């Protein structure tokens, strides 16, 4: 009886996507609802800076997909060097000084910055993942998007749990 219960709970949890599987899907969908200045080439790069919490989930999700007629390519960057080659960058963790540097560099290169550290959007990131009632949600800093030369679709803005309009310039 105990074994049957364990098998059922394992099967149920196998069907429930992990937090980072959900976040990977959000990253892909964010790219579909953002307008960049004209993009060169035939790729849209989604980069993970620092430690990669997604594992193979992000690669599997991106396999064979296009966004805005560009092939989606996943890259991992151990440091912020090279983020100007990305269109979407997920920043795992950075100290306040490092975050300011990364955000400034990203804004200058028209990069959509996404993070899940506490108050990421309040600190100048464009989209911040938050967990509410055990569900992945997100906040959007429209002023930071404007500073980066990006336009966020009104459809995406409607889904955000919080929209921040205060300009926060990364130092």
Structure report:
With 171 residues, the protein is α/β, with parallel strands linked by helices. The protein has one domain (18-164): Response regulator (Rossmann fold). It has helices at 2-15, 19-32, 56-62, 96-108, 142-147, 154-159; strands at 34-35, 43-49, 66-67, 70-77, 88-91, 112-115, 127-132, 135-141, 151-152, 162-164. It has an eight-stranded mixed β-sheet, with helices on both faces. A two-stranded antiparallel ribbon has the order 1-9. Helix 2 packs parallel to helix 3 (56-62). The model is unreliable at 1-14 (pLDDT under 50).
Q: Rg from C-alpha positions?
A: 17 Å
Domains (count): 1
The shape is: globular
Give the terminus-to-terminus CA distance.
60 Å
**The CATH class:** Alpha Beta
How large is the share of residues in beta strands? 25-35%
Q: What's the helical proportion of residues?
A: 25-40%
Under the CATH scheme, the architecture is 3-Layer(aba) Sandwich
Total strands: 10
Uncertain runs: 1-14
Output the CATH homologous superfamily.
Answer: Response regulator
Features:
Rossmann fold, 8-stranded mixed beta sheet, two-stranded antiparallel sheet, 6 helices, globular, disordered N terminus
């Amino acid at each position: 009886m105990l074994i049957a219960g364990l098998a059922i709970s394992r099967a149920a949890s196998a069907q429930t996507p992990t937090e980072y599987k959900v976040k990977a899907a959000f990253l892909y969908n964010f790219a579909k609802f953002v307008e960049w200045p004209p993009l060169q080439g035939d790729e849209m790069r989604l980069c993970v800076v620092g430690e990669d919490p997604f594992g193979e989930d992000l690669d599997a999700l991106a396999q064979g997909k296009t966004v805005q007629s560009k092939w989606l390519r996943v890259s991992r960057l151990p440091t912020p060097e090279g983020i100007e080659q990305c269109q979407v960058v997920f920043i795992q963790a950075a100290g306040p000084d490092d975050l300011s540097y990364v955000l400034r560099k990203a804004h200058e290169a028209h990069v959509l910055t996404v993070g899940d550290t506490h108050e990421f959007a309040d600190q100048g990131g464009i989209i911040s993942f938050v967990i509410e009632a055990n569900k992945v949600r997100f906040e959007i800093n429209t002023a930071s998007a404007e500073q980066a030369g990006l336009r966020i679709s009104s459809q995406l803005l409607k889904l955000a749990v919080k929209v921040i309009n205060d300009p926060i310039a990364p130092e």
